[in-house]
Amino acid sequence: DTGVSQDPRHKITKRGQNVTFRCDPISEHNRLYWYRQTLGQGPEFLTYFQNEAQLEKSRLLSDRFSAERPKGSFSTLEIQRTEQGDSAMYLCASTEQAMNTEAFFGQGTRLTVV
Amino acid sequence: GIQVEQSPPDLILQEGANSTLRCNFSDSVNNLQWFHQNPWGQLINLFYIPSGTKQNGRLSATTVATERYSLLYISSSQTTDSGVYFCAVSRMDSSYKLIFGSGTRLLVRP
């Protein structure tokens, strides 16, 4: 296992279009997190899965955002009717469900809405 | 929620110099990590250090949990050390979601 993988690395889309991002966590990790990072800021939490259950969503996650982790493995994050304010780096992280909660991040998906 | 403050916000060093980055947090935490964000945006794990001291090559970190701060030391800096350094904390009662500071932007000049 080479770590957390995200796809695509870059996405340019027109305002109003829908986009979907994928995250493949480290295989033995039960917990999966999505974060968003805008220019000059630290990443901010969006949502959290334990196995297939979505257990927490940030207020940053508007109704246009939806995330799934159907079989407790990979996860998808969809943004509907994209807006220019959605332009950001979207980061995925995973951790074990154990005492060691060190988080490992993927390479991120950089979204540009034009 | 927990507040995380990093200092300094920006740092310029000559190659070979040493530096100390600081992270203060406003409440008790179960996890603290230091990351280096490379120019392509990926967060590289440096230390998982809820408490105590760890060393990895030219880098070392110390967390004093009772006083709610952590320090990252970079010795004999190299140009490849340039980038943004983030401190992030989490708590068990918050699903271990990470709360990040605003980062320290380091530029090492040759």
What is this structure's SSE topology?
The complex is a heterodimer of chains A (114) and B (110).
Chain A: E1 5-7, E2 10-13, E3 19-24, E4 31-37, E5 44-50, E6 53-57, E7 65-68, E8 75-79, E9 88-95, E10 104-105, E11 109-113
Parallel strand pairs in A: 2-11
Antiparallel strand pairs in A: 1-3, 3-8, 4-5, 4-9, 5-6, 7-8, 9-10, 9-11
Chain B: E1 4-7, E2 10-14, E3 19-25, E4 31-37, E5 43-48, E6 52-56, E7 59-64, E8 69-74, E9 83-90, E10 99-100, E11 104-109
Parallel strand pairs in B: 2-11
Antiparallel strand pairs in B: 1-3, 3-8, 4-5, 4-9, 6-7, 7-8, 9-10, 9-11
Protein model, in words:
The complex is a heterodimer of chains A (114) and B (110). In chain A, strand 5 and strand 6 (53-57) form a beta hairpin. The relative contact order of chain A is 0.33. Chain A contains no helices and eleven strands. In chain A, the strands form two sheets. In chain A, strands 2, 4, 5, 6, 9, 10 and 11 form a seven-stranded mixed beta sheet that branches. With 114 residues, chain A is mainly beta. Chain A has strands spanning 5-7, 10-13, 19-24, 31-37, 44-50, 53-57, 65-68, 75-79, 88-95, 104-105, 109-113. Chain B contains no helices and eleven strands. Chain B is globular, with a radius of gyration of 13 Å. In chain B, strand 6 (52-56) and strand 7 (59-64) form a beta hairpin. In chain B, strands 2, 4, 5, 9, 10 and 11 form a six-stranded mixed beta sheet that branches. A five-stranded antiparallel beta sheet of chain B has the order 1-3-8-7-6, with no helix packed on it. Chain B has strands at residues 4-7, 10-14, 19-25, 31-37, 43-48, 52-56, 59-64, 69-74, 83-90, 99-100, 104-109. Chain B is mostly beta strands and 110 residues long. The chains are: A mainly beta (114), B mainly beta (110). Chain A binds chain B through residues 31, 33, 35, 37, 40-45, 48, 50, 55-56, 89, 91, 93, 95, 100-108, 110, and chain B through 4, 30-31, 33, 35, 40-43, 45, 48, 86, 88, 90, 92, 95-103.
